[in-house]
Amino acid sequence: MREITERDLSDVARGAAILGTGGGGDPYIGRLLALAAVREHGPVPLVPLSEVPDDAVVLPVAMMGAPTVMVEKLPSAEQVGLAARTLAGYLGKELTHIACAEAGGVNSLIPVVAAAQLGLPLVDADGMGRAFPELQMVLPTLYGIRATPMSIADEKGNRGVLDTVDNHWAERLARSATIDMGCSAMISNYAMSGPQARESLVPGTLSLCAELGALVRTARAEHADPVAAVVARLGGRRLFTGKVVDVERRTMTGFARGEARLSGMDGDAGAELVLRFQNEHLVAERDGVVRASVPDLLCTLERESGEAVTTEGLRYGQRVAVIAAPSDPRWHSPEGLALAGPRYFGYDIDPIGVAG
Questions:
Q1: Cβ contact 155:73 at 8 Å
Q2: What per-residue confidence (pLDDT) applies to 69?
């Protein structure tokens, strides 16, 4: 793709929800916001990461907070633009490009809204190659790129700029502000130069989202298995097929935390899988044994349609397939695991990847 048009948004949203590993926000909401922005302002140019010039000023834009809250507290397009304009004004620089902080149903499409409103190109990349719950959990952190100055804005028009001593403090203080703003807010941070963006971001994310979305759509039209198509494209494996029999979910400290229990079907009949999540799926346990974990991707897809099911969308009785897919290899470095490995989230286990 060289631009994102109205007809691309459904595929991008569908694929982004898959890469979002259960988090990153509701893809339906993200698609509606992006659709309105593209209809008003026209298609958004999409620039390959390799073509971002050295003198670029690249600005990621995202939603921060608990995805569960967004089901009832919808963001506005004006809120997205306010976050970007606030940080640009504070930096005193002319923005040249918008970027995605993470892959996710909302957070892959919020930047489309910002780019359309500001008349800027969007970089075909993101900061994770998936979604993670905390804002310091991006690859730019591994390259010494600061999260702050960062802006934060709510739907009421409140806004602010944080400047912290490190990226962990940016998460801590921004999370507190987000809770006061109703557990969801728009943010803009990790302003980068061209060389910084080319070095630290994951290339081709939005193109991959569109490709995954098209694969699912085409497989359904051809009466093929959309889950198998996604697994093959991501180089992953199917962990489990089953029915959701219990979901424990709560919003606390600004996150959607909980676990889902699945009773096995088909070849997994008689087994149980437990998914533990904090916005995103973190650990999958089959009959008490961990079979996959962060930083690799754990995704829940509807068994028949291949549509991603977010952590706030899990419901009793759903028939789902759970798949695992490899993350960007930089997440398996010692620094990457310290930032977003299972022990960071309180699980005393070594990471178990797709090949584990």
A1: yes
A2: 66
CA triplet 267, 272, 273: central angle to 5 degrees? 100
What's the rounded Cα separation, in Å, for the pair 63 and 74? 11
Residues 164, 45: Cα–Cα separation, whole Å: 33
- Dihedral in degrees, nearest 10, Cα atoms 296, 298, 304, 310: -130
Q: Which amino acid is at 57?
A: V
- Give the rounded distance of the alpha carbon of 57 from its chain centre: 22
Per-residue confidence at 77, pLDDT binned at 50, 70, 90?
A: confident
Q: How many CB atoms lie within 10 A of CB 157?
A: 9
Whether the pLDDT of residue 275 is over 70: the answer is yes
- pLDDT above 90: percentage of residues in the chain: 85
Q: What b/e string do you get for 72-106 counting C-beta neighbours within 10 Å, with b at 16 or more?
A: eeebebebbbbbbbbbbebbeeebbbbbbbbbbbb
Alpha-carbon Rg for the chain, nearest whole angstrom, is 19
Mean pLDDT of the chain: 94
Q: How far apart are CA 215 and CA 174, in angstroms?
A: 37
Say what the pLDDT of residue 356 is.
47
Straight-line distance from the first to the last Cα atom of the chain, in angstroms, rounded to the nearest whole number: 34
Report whether pLDDT(322) > 60.
yes
d(CA 353, CA 342): 11
